[in-house]
Amino acid sequence: MKVLIDFTQIPTDRTGVGVYADKLISGLSSLVTNGDSLLVLVQKDERGIYELVRDSPNVSIASVPTTVLRNRALLFLYEQVVLPVLLVSKNVDVIHSLHYTHPLICPCSRVVTVHDLTFLLSPELHTWGRRLIMPFFIKHAVRRSEAVVFISNTTRVDSEKLIQGAKKKLRRVIPLGVSLKEFNLDSQLVEEVLAKFLLTQPYVLYLGTIEPRKNIFRLIQAYEQIAHQHPNLLLVLAGKSGWHVDNVFAAIRSSKYRERIRHLGFVSELEKRALLTKCQILVYPSLYEGFGLPVLEAMAAGAPVITSNVSALPEVTGDAAILINPLSVEEIATAMSMLLNDEQKRDHLRILGKRRAAEFSWEKVAIQTFDLYKEVAEK
After folding, report:
1. Which of 73, 111, 170, 346 is most buried by a 10 A CB count?
2. Looking at domain 2-177+361-377, which CATH architecture does it have?
3. What is the CA radius of gyration of the chain?
4. What is the spatial distance between Cα 30 and Cα 79, in angstroms, rounded to a whole number?
5. In this structure, are residues 192 and 223 in contact, taking their beta carbons and an 8 Å threshold?
């Protein structure tokens, strides 16, 4: 069996989908044995993958020119016109497309990962370009591809409600994972990260891209309701800026607590783990998530979690988080105040969170995905 993983859509700065892609490649590289091979197709400016697969004789890497194909329109053209030819020339049995889009005319079996269905449920939360393209590819993947990976049962159920004419076979739920040992950080290293960001006071943390779906505007409003009760408490927003962020940064500038609201921008994996390890609470009031990886990572780090009672987030957290209505600023503020004033409750959530996080692993993700490849190839 020869599998090609299309990594070309993954940016060099890894966030949710990028973390999934990295961890999947790393896990698969130890599973590919004699008789099978894995080809990873990357952009030429890709840095991290080579280190992940260097000790794997059955894994190889091919690259495409970044100067051209970091342009989304040109990458799309490559995917539809050139990639099918490459699949034939390399005798590929299965292609795995990691982020929705995939070759519509394909000479081999397709596996497509569907991360969420916000493009169908709440298109207003995305740019116009994505609204035009992504719903078509999601529907095509669910209806036509040989296998679909859903990262939560919530997303699978949503697909069944929203997309008619879908095949029933080989639609698999493979939840994302976490590595608990990665959060056992040296205390000095943690302090160095905090010093880099000048975080000398207690802080509540949001982790993720700054974009409308993440509901950060209401988080800022909730923080403003409780900030006077906790005069040393910071609100830290860690994540790169996405689209339509003007209202968030305008809210920060106009806030009477603007000196206590910090936007750190994109943070590395190591910095992310350090920030999670030391935060008072992770608050993640997203309007919709196909999974919600920052919540799982927070539980693995031992951070108490407040998150939304919608989409896949309750599925991920189980009983290990405080769930709130993300549309209610008052609920977000009340939950934050309650946890900040109750150290015993925070400690209890730390224990429950680590226990819950232990149920998820990247090893499981790799094994279940590799088994799916084999099943598809045998059809």
Report:
1. 111
2. 3-Layer(aba) Sandwich (3.40)
3. 21
4. 27
5. no
Residue 56: predicted pLDDT:
85
Rounded to the nearest 5°, which phi and psi values hold at 276?
Answer: -65, -35
Under 8 Å between Cβ of 280 and 6:
no
Nearest residue to 251 via CA among 235, 264, 233, 265: 235
The closest alpha carbon to 68, from 84, 87, 45, belongs to 45
Question: Is residue 328 over pLDDT 90?
Answer: yes
Give the confidence band of 129 by pLDDT, cuts at 50, 70, 90. confident
Q: Where in the chain is the domain with CATH 3.40.50.2000?
A: 2-177+361-377, 180-357
Contact 357, 331 (CB under 8 A): no
Among 267, 312, 36, CA closest to 150: 312
Strand 281-284 with 171-173, pairing: unpaired
The model's pLDDT over 53-68, given as tens digits with 9 standing for 90+, comes to 877 888 999 988 877 7
- For residue 168, the model assigns a pLDDT of 62
Q: Which residues 6+ apart lie within 8 Å of 306 measured at CB?
A: 281, 282, 283, 284, 285, 321, 322, 323, 324, 332, 335, 336, 339
- Note the pLDDT tens digit of each residue in 247-295: 899 999 999 999 999 999 999 999 999 999 999 999 999 999 999 999 9
pLDDT given for residue 327 in this prediction: 97
Residue 311 — left, alpha, or beta (φ > 0 → left; ψ -120 to 50 → alpha)? left
Is the predicted pLDDT of residue 127 greater than 80, yes or no?
Answer: no
Which tokens in the block code for residue 73?
A: 């329109």
Residue 167 pLDDT grade (very low, low, confident, very high; cuts 50, 70, 90): low
CA distance 328 to 125: 18
**Cα 131 from Cα 221, distance rounded (Å):** 29
Residue whose C-alpha is closest to residue 264's, from 199, 218, 201: 199
- What's the sign of the alpha-carbon dihedral 260, 261, 263, 269? positive
Dihedral angle computed from the Cα positions of residues 142, 102, 27 and 364, in that order, rounded to the nearest 10 degrees: -10
Residue-wise DSSP of 153-211: HHHHHHHHHH-TT---TTEEE------GGGG---HHHHHHHHHHTT--S-EEEEES-BS
| Structural contact between residues 124 and 102, judged by C-beta atoms closer than 8 angstroms | no
Domain 180-357 superfamily per CATH: Glycogen Phosphorylase B; (3.40.50.2000)
